[in-house]
Structure formats: structure tokens, C-alpha cells
Amino acid sequence: MLNMNNDQPNILLVEDEQNLHEALKLNLELEGYEVTSAYDGSEALRKIESAYFDLIIMDIMLPDVDGISITENVRVHNNEVPILILSAKNSASDRILGLKKGADDYLTKPFNLEELLLRVAKLITKNKKIQVKESVGDIYHFGDNKIDFKSLEAINFNGTTIGLSKKEAMLLKLLVENKNEVVTREKILQVVWGYNVYPTTRTIDNFILSFRKYFESDSRNPRYFHSVRGMGYKYTE
Ligand code: CA
Asked: Which regions of 136-196 does DSSP assign to beta strands (E)?
């Protein structure tokens, strides 16, 4: 299920009730979303680990791991994916607990389909806006290094010209645009790889190692390119 079409937002639908699940999936697909299904909590956790989603629609009462615990787990791993909780529970305390554990929105069953679709669209748009940072120009200087994002060429502190791959340039740009901030693995995968199947963490690590070789005078004590264990990667100046 390799999805190379990056224009369609990907939604993970976590719902164990078969009929509701299928009806929701169909309606979301009609709205132009790519939908991945999970029918229980452990399946949901596995899918969250292995792919990027623009949104998770999460039922609370599931056969094994409940939706609140999954939400908590997602946030512990610093995954910023928007989560819309769907639940039969409608007491204020459940709603508050869900939001406290990191859900972004909450709908109580039975819900109005149109309202669900509106909230889904809103959460996805809001998330995309947050991810767009101030853009750097085509040429970027740091230390004695110079990157030309347009020609995919860099000149480093030694005066060596380095040809960059498209992905290298994209990752460099993403890191530079988020200077001094940790960029999560999820964000990198979404922006640079842009489809719903992840390369391994090692793949990103290898890119970072290359950047150090290209641009750091002492690649063992990096000044610019940092891995932040369990969180992501950071460019500092
Ligand atoms: Ca359920």
C-alpha cells in the first residue's frame, strides 16, 4: 500500500465497530482522504510507529489498548499528529481526560457526519499551517559553508564543491528553517519522503552523518547538526 500521492492527507482510523468503521472510511475516502484502518489498539500503535499520518481518528473503547492510552503513548514519543477522539462516553470527565492526554478534539457518538468531516478538515489544515515555517532563500550561508538549494550544490569551509541529492537538500532546508528547534522524525519523513511508508531511523541518521562530513570541521564534535535522542534532529548555529 505504497502511497506516492502526497496531495491526499493520510488518516488513521481507529475504530473496532465494523459498520461504523466502514461507513466512516467510505465517507472519508469520498472527501479525498487516504484512509488506513486499525481495528484494535495494538494494530493502531503498530501503524503509528511505521507511517506518517496527517490525522488520527481514535475511538476510546477498543478491545485491547484504549484510545486514551494510545493518545498518551503518541505524545510521549513526541509525535505531533492531530488526534480526534470519537467516543460513546460523553461525560465531561472523559472529554477532559482525552484532551489532557493530548487529543486535539473530541466528538461524542452518535455524531453528525458533516460535523466530523468539518472537524477533520480543520485539524488537518491547522496542522499543515504549523508545519510551514519561515522560508530561507535559495542561498544559505553558515560558518564558511554555502548551500545553494536551487542548483543542489554546496561549497564547504574547505572550498570543496559538494553535489547534493534532492533529499539531502530538502532535509537541509527543513533543518535550517527550524534553526535551534528539534525537528521530529515524523516531520522529516512527511516533508522529505512525503509518502506513507517510512525509511528506517538509520536512513535519517546517515543523512545527518553526511551533513557533518560535508559541513563540520570536526565531524565528531558537531557544531551544526545534532541528533536528539528519542526526539529528532536539530540544526544550531
Ligand atoms: Ca469501540
From this structure: 139-142, 145-148, 153-155, 161-163, 182-184
- Same domain? For 18 and 72 the reply is yes
pLDDT in tens, 48-96: 888 888 999 999 999 999 999 999 999 887 678 899 999 886 677 888 8
CA 60 to centroid of ligand 1, rounded, Å: 6
CA of residue 20 to ligand 1 center, whole Å: 10
As a dihedral over the C-alpha atoms of residue 176, residue 228, residue 82, residue 28, rounded to 10 degrees, the angle is 80
Per the domain annotation, does 121 fall within a domain? Answer: yes
3 state SS of 167? helix
Nearest CA among 87, 97, 86, 84 for reference residue 54: 84
pLDDT above 90: percentage of residues in the chain: 63
- Between the CA of 62 and the centroid of ligand 1 the distance, in Å, is 5
Structural domain includes residue 5: no
Domain that holds residue 25: 10-131
**How close is the Cα of 87 to the center of ligand 1, in Å?**
7
The residue with cell 486499525 is: 38
pLDDT of residue 133: 60
Kindly give the distance from the C-alpha atom of residue 34 to the centroid of ligand 1, in angstroms, as a whole number: 22
Q: How far is the CA of 17 from the centre of ligand 1 (A)?
A: 6
Instruction: Please report whether residue 2 resides in a domain.
Output: no
Tell me if the pTM is above 0.85.
no
